[in-house]
Fold this sequence. Notes:
single chain, mainly beta
Amino acid sequence: DLLFSPKRNKILEKRYRRKSRMEARKIIEAVLFLACCALGARCELPSNLVQANWVETKGGYIKTGVTQSGATTVELDCLLEVTSLNYSKRRLMGFDGAGPKNYFGVTTNNHFEIWNPTVLTAELGAKYRLHMTQNKTTTLLEVFSEGGELLDSVTGNAKGINSSECQIFTINSSSAYTCYGIRVYDFKIIIDGDVKRDLVPVYDVSQGKAGMYDSVSETAFYAYGSGQIVCDAFRFQYGSGDTKIICDAGCMLCIV
Length: 256
C-alpha cells in the first residue's frame, strides 16, 4: 500500500525529476563548453561572464587602467564597425586630445583619422581593424579589412608620450568625443612590445551589464560616466527555483 500511496509517489517523482535535471544540466554544460570552443569563445571566462560579439556606448566609456608613463612606443589595435554615418562630432578613442594627441577615430565626414591626417572613408556596417603605432617622433595609422588586407595608411603629426590613461569610446579631453554609433569587437593595448590589455566584449549575467574582459589582467571593465555600455548578448529567464531556465544569447545556449 505504501508503494502506491500518493505521498510515496510524490517523493519518487520529485527524486526522479531532480535526477533528470542534474543529468540534463551535465549534458548542456558539456555542449556549452564544446560550442564555445567551436565558436572561438574564450572558455576561460569567469562563470558570471558570457562573451558577446560587440559592445557600444550609450554615453558610458571604459577606463582601461593603462597609461603611457615611461613608454617609448604605444600601439592600439581595435576591430570596429561604424553603424552611424555623418555624426555631428568627431568620435575618438585612445589616450588624450592634448599633448601627444595619441588617439584614433572617425571624423564628421566618416574618415578614419589620427591627429590632422585622415584616411579611408568608413562604409556603413563594414568592419575595420585599426592599428595605431606612436613613438616620440611620429604616429602611424593603418586600416585593415576584417580579413587582414591593408586598405590604407597614413603618418600623422602627433608625437610624444605622456601619462594619460587609455580609454575606450572616448579620450581624456575637455571636449566630448564620445564614440556613438561605433561597435567595438576587440581592443588591444601594447606598450613597448608587451600586451597590456587584450579586451573582448562580455555580458555580466550576475550584474546585468555589459563591459570588456581583459585576459591579461583577468579583469572585467565596466562603464564609467553617466551612461552605459551595451552589447548584443542578453539574458532570458523563465521560472524560478529548481525549474529556472536561463538563456544567454551570447552563446545561444541554455542552462537548466
